[in-house]
C-alpha cells in the first residue's frame, strides 16, 4: 500500500457490511445523510468512520473523504478518549448514550462551537452490534443564549443586591425561588434551593385578607400588583412598604416569572405625618398668634398717649413676636431652646449694654406656645429695664436664671435687676404689666410674681413644660 494511502475499512467479513453498500442500495438513506440539518455518522466498533455527512465534519474541519476509514483518534484526537468510552459502553451494554455535549475542534476557528450528540447501537442480522450511529445537533447559539441569560441574571442579582429595596423572584405560580440580600437582612427568612417561600406570611394580620385576594387576582390575570402594606421584620416590628409585583412574559406572552419589590416608606410616612402635624400646628399657632397680635394692638392702643407712641410700641412688640416665630420655624415648630429664646429677645438690648445681662440655665426645649408668650414677657421686661430700670444707668445689671424640677417637670424662671435707679411702683397698670402678671402665667398654666423692690424689679414664673396647649 502506498505511503499516502488511507486505511480502508475491512469488508470481507459477512457480519460486517460494506460501508458503501447500504447507501448505494438505499439512495434515500444517502439523501438523508447529504441533506440532514444535523451531523450524522456511522462508526465501527473500533471507532473508525464508515459514513459521515458534511454537517458533522464541521466539528473538526476535515472533509468527508478525510474521515472515511480513519479512526476518531486520527481525526479528532481531543475527543478520542470520550468517544472510545462511549462506543465501548454501547458495545458492552447495548444501550444508547444520549445528550453528550461535544466542543468544536477546528484550529482555524477561534469561536467556540458546541454540539449535543446521540449515540445508538446498530445491530447486524444476528443481533450483534456491528457499529454505532451518531447524530449531532449544533447548539452553539443555544449555549450562547444560555450564557448571555446567565450573565444577565448574574447582573440582575448583583444590581438587586446593591439597591436598598427588598426584591424577590417567583415562578409562574408565585412561588419565590430567589431573594436579594436586603430581603434576608430585613426579614431574616432565607430561601433555600427547592423550598417554597410565601412572602404573604410576613403581612400584618389586618391587611392579609385583602392582599391575598388581590395577589390571587393578579396571578389569575397575569396583571401587576401595586399597593401599600406592612411587612414583619426580624426585629418583630411591622413597617410600611410600597409593594410592586410585575409579571415577566415570554415570546408567546405567557407569564413565566414574577418580580416583587418592596420599598420601605417608613421615613416618607413619618414625614407625611409630621407635615400634617405642622399644618395643624401652623393653623393652631396662626390663630393664637393672630389673637395675640389683636390683643397687643388693642392694649397698646389703650395705653398709648398718641398715634406715634402707639406705632412705636406696637412695632416693637411685633418684632418681639417675629423673633419667636423665627426660632420656631428654624426647628419646624417643634419648639425652641429657652437659651435661644432669651438670647434672641435680649439681643437688641444687650448690644447697647454689653456684659450687663447675665444669663444662665440648663438646656431646655420649650413648646411653641411657651416660646411665644415667654418671649413677649421678656420683651416687655427688657423694654421697661432700658427705659426705667437697670439698663437705664451705666451700672445696672440684669440676672436671668432658670432651672427645671425633674420631679414635676416644672420650669422656674427668674428675672432680677440691680444697680439701677431706685424703683417706684407704677401708679397705673400698663400693657407690659398685664402681659407679665396675667397673660403669660395664664397661657402657660403657671403662676408668676412681679415685685417692684426699691433695689430692682424682680419677676418669677413657674410653669409646667408639658401642659396641654
Strands across the major sheet, in which order?
2-1-5-4-3
Q: On the 0-100 scale, what is the average pLDDT?
A: 83
**Tell me about the biggest sheet?**
5 strands, antiparallel
Rg computed from alpha carbons, rounded to a whole number of angstroms: 47 Å
Number of strands: 17
In DSSP terms (H or I, runs of 4 or more residues), the helix count works out at: 14
Provide the β-strand percentage band: 25-35%
Helix content percent band: 40-55%
Structural class: alpha+beta
The coarse silhouette is: rod-shaped
Distance from first to last alpha carbon: 117 Å
Poorly predicted spans? 1-21
Commentary on this structure:
This protein is of the alpha+beta class and 469 residues long. It has helices at residues 20-25, 27-35, 54-57, 64-67, 72-75, 80-93, 140-162, 181-187, 208-221, 266-303, 307-330, 338-350, 368-387, 431-443, and strands at residues 39-43, 49-52, 97-103, 114-123, 129-138, 166-171, 176-179, 225-232, 238-249, 255-264, 336-337, 357-360, 365-366, 397-405, 410-418, 447-453, 456-464. The strands form four sheets. Strands 2-1-5-4-3 form a five-stranded antiparallel sheet, with helices on both faces. Strands 7-6-10-9-8 form a five-stranded antiparallel sheet. The protein has a five-stranded mixed sheet with strand order 12-14-15-17-16, covered by helices on one side. A hairpin with a 4-residue loop joins β14 (397-405) and β15 (410-418). α12 runs parallel beside α13 (368-387). It starts with 19 loop residues before the first helix and ends in a 5-residue tail after the last strand. Residues 1-21 have low confidence and may be disordered.
